[in-house]
Amino acid sequence: MRFNTLLWLIQHRYRWWQQRFSTKPQPLLTSTELQDLYQHASSTLPTAREVRHPLLGERNSVFAGSGYEFTDNRLHSAGEDTRFINWRLYARSGQLYRKLFLEERRPSLWIILDRRSSMRFGTQVRLKVTQAARLAMLCLYRGLRQQLPSAAVLLEQQAHWFKPIRTLSAAYPLQQAIIAAAPPQPDTQEIPLAAVLHELHVQLKPGCLIFLISDFHDLDDSMVPVLLAMSRKHHLSAYHIVDPIELQAPAQGDFVLWDATTDTTQRLNCNTAPQRQRYTTTLRQYHSALESRLYQGGVQYQRWLSSSDALQTTLDTSHAQPTRNN
Q1: CATH architecture, domain defined by 31-48+107-325
Q2: Which helix H or strand E contains 194, and what residues bound it?
């Protein structure tokens, strides 16, 4: 009996010790950070192209009906509302015509968030995936405040699709997925960004607001045509997340770098000025080529440092020109 009691005490104490001192993966954002983002999510999202969505709203659609913007005339049919008869045209032609207006519809918001292994990296302040989560939540809160149907695709080893939701309470599962802990992943095959873009291009009705949040490490020339096709039908924005070390070599130190395109590593000795310069030049060429692909695809571009704190005050999703926030 004493032995059993002692064993129970040991087991109980061990479980308490595990709960007290074990290190569990923590969410990327705290409840305080989420509240702060929500408080600053008051500005409106950009105007989309003509939409084909069923919900009435404030954006011009391809549907002719009872809106505010005149688009055409057609012959009046018996039983239709006489308020829209074009009497001036009747005086000239002797026939009854009905005025047609563009109906205002409400577009859908889609957030494409990259949580793959290359995003789970950071040298200053926070991981790239944490900054991406901040941007994703800010876009989501803005969309919900505008009562836009808001959906998302989260890229990890597989693509996780979240159906459109319209209320903050319904967004809880999506919010938890966006801010979920992101520990280092094993070297396994991950879904490419191109596969998700092709699926979106086929499924989405024209007029969506689409935000791509990624480091775009697998964006190549073959993806430009699908980006261009999407940008002609939707408002397409890219938030490029970079770590400070991905823009400029540190002043000193010895590093081992992994090349995602070739899956190889190489040594970087930043203690010598020539090698630092070569590294910085290579980075500039890489980012220049990446930006060029996005521009060719008709995508509105912003670059964000993972260490930047000023999302709420400087993020402008309605910009017309590409910007870099360093």
Answers
A1: 3-Layer(aba) Sandwich (3.40)
A2: helix 193-203
pLDDT number for residue 135: 95
Give me 290's structure tokens: 């990446």
Cα gap 180→167, rounded to integer Å:
20
pTM over 0.70: yes
Residues 290 and 240: beta-carbon distance below 8 Å? yes
CB 181 within 8 A of CB 247: no
Query: What type of residue sits at position 236?
Result: L
Domains in the chain: boundaries: 31-48+107-325, 56-105
Hey, which bits of 91-158 come out as E strands? 97-105, 109-114, 150-155
- What is the structure's pLDDT at 131? 96
Please check whether residue 306 is in contact with residue 291, taking contact to mean a CB–CB distance below 8 angstroms: no
User: Could you read off the pLDDT of 47-69 as tens digits, one per residue?
Assistant: 544 444 444 444 443 334 444 55
Nearest to 163 by CA among 237, 202, 111, 104: 111
**Which helix or strand (DSSP H or E) is residue 143 part of?**
helix 128-145
**Residue 291 to residue 76: CA distance in whole angstroms:** 52
Q: Strand (E) positions, the chain?
A: 56-65, 69-75, 97-105, 109-114, 150-155, 159-165, 209-214, 235-242, 254-259, 264-269, 300-305, 323-325
First to last CA, the chain: 67
What pLDDT digit, counting tens, does each position of 244-267 carry? 988 888 888 777 766 655 667 777
Average pLDDT score over residue span 299-317: 77
